[in-house]
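Researcher: Go.
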Amino acid sequence: MVDLKGQYNFIKDEVDRALEDVFQTTSFINGPTVQEFQTNLEHYMGVKHVIPCANGTDALQIALMGLSLSPGDEVVTPNFTFAATVEVIALLKLKPVLVDVDPKTFMLNVDAVEKAITAKTKVILPVHLFGQCAPMEPLLTLAQKHGIYVLEDNAQALGAVYTFSNGKKAKAGTIGHVGATSFFPSKNLGAFGDGGAIFTNDDALAHSLRGIVNHGMYERYHHDVVGVNSRLDSIQAAILNVKLKYLDFYNEKRKTAALHYNKAFAHSEALITPYREAQCDSHVYHQYTLQIKKGNRDELVQHLADHNIPCGVYYPIPLHQQKAYADPTEEDSSFPNTIQLCKEVISLPMHTELALDQIEFISKQVLCFVNKV
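Model: Structure:
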């Protein structure tokens, strides 16, 4: 699914030099490399504050901690997403309010969000799923109307650009009150281990978040707030600093690969290719996710495996059916789009080293399966 070795070989000399610098300085925690990466990422994202942390899940949790919420406060978020999105809500004893998604984009349905808002709602948590921007403008309008926060889960869409109706543009993750991202190795900007970051333009919130990530300290051994231990280490920062220079290049290669897939599948009524807004900048294809409308998706998974083609199913079980998050008051009928997507989606290999002949071989096998059904 991801050729990390090929990606490393392309930038090997730069990465090796960056790592050697860290080894020579031995500043492994909060070293100068972390500050350099923070500054460079702030510039790239066009945001005032980047707060590096240990991983993307921590980024979401710390962002919520910084909003000074109370147990029982409600967070509206999509049913069709990875569990980390609701995991952090539950850990903080907040209440996840799951809503159905748009069948085209797979992301928050704005009408469903509005219906889910109550007096206890304090946060809307959209997910920029599979690399595409969520519908941020109407969600911000809703949030302003009800006086609630918007926290963006941007673990899958770093570098994607959202265009407002007035033509204004902003990077995904910098549009709401606060955003969170992951540097898991398979992400568009991936480390060689875990890593994450939080984004905000709010000075006071940034100050709070910087304390939370470091045991609640602003001065050593002075603990002003309840915090956690969640720091991006210097080795990962050094690698990310190198790879950040190539992020737009990587994203363009993903878009090109997606266009080749789209062309191959253009005339198949058995498949629905990923929807994107008119502006291609809105999608950076962390995943290339098809909907299988003819034939059994799980049988296609086996067919691809038989031909040594990796694939992924993100996500086979909706969150409201997961044992850890099941709510007896929630019925399948409330989530028709989510239920359908869980049965139909399949993600094909998508990475920066994909060659045209590989895409053609993968596409041929997908079409071979659906045309025989």
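Model: The chain has two domains: 4-98+106-244, 247-372.
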